[in-house]
Amino acid sequence: YTCDLIRNFSIIAHIDHGKSTLADRLLELTGTIQKKQVGRNEQVLDKLKVERERGITVKAQTASMIHKFSGKEYLLNLIDTPGHVDFSWEVSRSLAACQGALLLVDASQGVQAQSISVFHIAQERGLKIIPVLNKIDLPAAQPERIAAQMQSTFGIDPTEIIPISAKTGQGVEAILEAIIQRIPPPSGLENAPLKAFLFDSFYDRYRGVISLVNVQAGTIRKGDKILSCHTRKRYEVQDVGVMYPEEVPVDCLRPGQVGYVSCNMKESSEAHIGDTLFRIGHPVEPMPGFKPAKAMVYAGVFPVDSNDFPKLEESIKRLTLTDRSVTMQRESSSALGQGCRLGFLGTLHMDVFRQRLEDEYDANVIITAPTVPYKVIYKDKEVYISNPTEFPDVTDTTSKVKEIHEPVVRASIIVPEEGFGDMMDLCYSHRAEGLEHRYLDAGSGSTSSRIILTCIIPLSEIVTDFFDQLKSRSSGFASFDYEDAGYKKSDLAKMTFLLNAKPVDALALIVHRSAQDTIGRAWVKKLHKVIPRQLFEVPIQAAIGRKIIARETLSALRADVTAGLYGGHYERKMKHLENQKESKKRMKRMGSVDLPQEAFFDILRK
Ligand code: GTP
């Protein structure tokens, strides 16, 4: 296929607006996959089990299809993008390989927070956008109203909008035509030196890392000796092919084409997303580099049974081969033993990873409370700290800390008018600043207007329960998205928890000073509930620096040491009680609180 017969496109949409369903229809219509029996709802592109269970796309998948149009055969490359706030980085990298995008909007729900963010990413990349209204088969669909919304929000000409039902297939044919007619073909020179843009990779147990590339110039074939601009490593190409929708080997990949390259890469870190591959001896100007995936949420992961650490580490390593956006480091805790500290793109990413760990490797794990990377500014240096145990004691006047900065994000929330007050409360209770709002459209009859609310909010405030609260307070009607907004000075401190006067490192938290009392009290209450009573009294305390800010006392469990003694042996009874008192003292002195792992499990799982 020459360039003029190739189209590279993506489907971008808010979560649940029907991206995977539409992708399936397109693959069926072009005969790339067999039509499934009615009633089966298993999407081809959503491969991972957790994706199917949660119904969200986690990992981008790419597929090619062939479509005949006015006597010519076209090669259409669909580059699938994941649909969640945590993965917006993956969206932007997949879009770099496309010239156009289908912007899919649910005709019953209308424009949502992520419709807007993905639209902006696509627009910034200069992609041709084809607006599509999906789910027109639903009784609740309001195609005219939503079309007007798309016009006012995106400046889209309503006559360009293609109404479809990805479920029934109605209107989907028109999309194939629009892709061919409206999206420009990729440009690329056949007789130029090879320049291949690496936009994704996956791991294959037998062949190692497989890269997905978009050939920008030249051709790539088996046996080629290539070099990576980024790592300067050399490889020999073992195999090239297209995703149709599974890997199908081909002779060579030409300019404009999208396909896979297998070249004996052992580690997924070698396949640097945004890298440019070229032929040895024919260097090219690399494509403008990409921001590497930035871990924004960190948590410690420990095995429930500490003997399982080698197995856990092995499992994590294997999973990071398939999900390269997870960063990993070893960590040890006096309470939880040996573990790993992992960095994720967001909390959903973290949940997905844990579930995969449990599903695929049958490993029971404890995950500590999520934290974000804080910037600690000293007189002469800046340090990023994402592990609370390493956080300095800011109440210590001898510490050289000048300022603490925390990551903040620009959040956008779209909510029906009646839920607006609740959303404002939610934002303010999470330290939001600079709240602004505007109407997205005017209400009509039975439907209310929708408002878009934007604010700056600390990332640490949204990594815990923000999303759940947003959904429950708005009965699921609010949608939410955020983007990085840099760092901001903040009044933060490390909160430690002491059991029997001994700090438990795995429980340390970074808190905003304004919320320290509330948080301290809530946590000691939680601990009080889950820690089993001991033979001695155990104070449970929350502290900031040396100052105790909350306390609960776990009363002693009185073992009845006299139970086996009958009759009136008063002296013997007394002696036993004396002994018991002595040993109680000793245990307390040693401070050995028996803390079962399940207790951690309970508190850290919320
Ligand atoms: P993510 O993968 O999580 O981003 O979601 P998605 O955008 O891929 O959505 P998906 O295709 O999984 O569809 C979400 C839900 O909407 C599923 O239950 C689909 O069956 C349903 N759905 C998709 N298209 C249509 C449609 O045209 N009409 C109706 N009635 N339902 C649809």
Describe this structure in words.
- By secondary structure, this protein is of the alpha+beta class.
- It has 14 helices and 31 strands.
- The strands form six sheets. It has an eight-stranded antiparallel β-sheet with strand order 11-10-16-7-8-15-12-13, with no helix packed on it. A six-stranded mixed β-sheet has the order 2-3-1-4-5-6, with helices on both faces. Strands 21, 22, 23, 24, 25 and 26 form a six-stranded antiparallel β-sheet that branches.
- A hairpin with a 2-residue loop joins β30 (538-544) and β31 (547-554).
- The longest helix is centred in the C-terminal third of the chain and has 21 residues, at 570-590.
- The two termini are 54 Å apart.
- Residues 37-41, 55-60 and 586-591 have low confidence and may be disordered.
- The structure holds guanosine-5'-triphosphate.
- The site of guanosine-5'-triphosphate has 20 residues, from α1.
- This is GTP-binding protein lepa.
- It comes from Pluteus cervinus.
